[in-house]
Automatic annotation (TrEMBL):
The keyword Protein biosynthesis is assigned to this record: no
Family per similarity comment: Belongs to the FPP/GGPP synthase family.
Keywords for this protein: Isoprene biosynthesis, Magnesium, Metal-binding, Transferase
Organism: Bosea thiooxidans
Organism domain of life: Bacteria
Keyword Magnesium: yes
InterPro entries: Isoprenoid_synthase_dom_sf (IPR008949), Polyprenyl_synt (IPR000092), Polyprenyl_synt_CS (IPR033749), Prenyl_diphosphate_synthase (IPR053378)
Essential cofactor(s): Mg(2+)
Cellular component per GO, a single term: cytoplasm
GO biological process terms held by the UniProt record: terpenoid biosynthetic process
GO molecular function: metal ion binding; prenyltransferase activity
Protein name: Probable farnesyl diphosphate synthase
Amino acid sequence: MSSVPSSASPGEIEARLARHAEAIEALLAALLADAAKPGETARPARLLAAMRHGALGGGKRLRPFLTAETARLFGAAPEQGLRAGAAVELLHCYSLVHDDLPAMDDDDLRRGRPTVHKAFDEATAILAGDALLTLAFEVLADEATHPSGAVRAALVSCLARASGLGGMVGGQMLDLAAEGRFAEGPEALPEAAIRRLQAMKTGALLAASVEIGARLGGADAAALAALGDYGRALGATFQVADDILDVESDAEQMGKATAKDADKGKATLVGALGLDGAKRERDRLSEAAVAALAGFGPEADVLRAAARFAAQRKS
């Protein structure tokens, strides 16, 4: 793919995202094909249909885009970046399927379609999420993703750490606690605690998307540190922008229910800083992400444009 200047418009970066999303969609469809793979006994049709419903046909695919673009930055083969990005996206899709369940956010709409538990049933949705999660690690551990077992192990470790106890799942637990789901009742979180929650629930996987691409391409320690700063700032930008869109956008534009954060008592920076304050923080974080790439040349312009897109997006 050709370079995109850091001043690229949201429309230009969206077009690039769309082209990459087509490639990810095709790979995900192949990974979720009917035929059983070597080592599998069978692929139950209803479970496979639910997995496809949760993983195919929508979304910007920002996380695999970041993985592939970071991998490209360090000279990794395009097919390796695509496979690693697909693994990240499979894990992200699992999280959405489970997040939508009645026991979690109880959402009926995702990407403009019924959520998996609405299109099928709760038990099937739970199993579909489980299967998407495990498939993500299968893809990362496959020699087709990278010939080095040490590199593959590093990728698996990175994704597991970002998505588990100290990352996305832990952040979801903190989010439920703040809503008052448990005996302790709702908890009004200070700003620092909100930032920690969001860094875990949303930011960790976005940051891992970047780190996985860098490790796939053999980035050194200094590059990994700079990209870690970039990924964390980008993840925070994305979450604040999402909180703002929940207030300002509508369900048709977003493809999911909006105006639900305040109703559920969710801890957000919009609540802590006010709408205008949250917008200023969104823009500050976006520029912090760009600044983290100061040591890279124009070959990182796509990542710079992605940070600004995360702040400017409308859905």
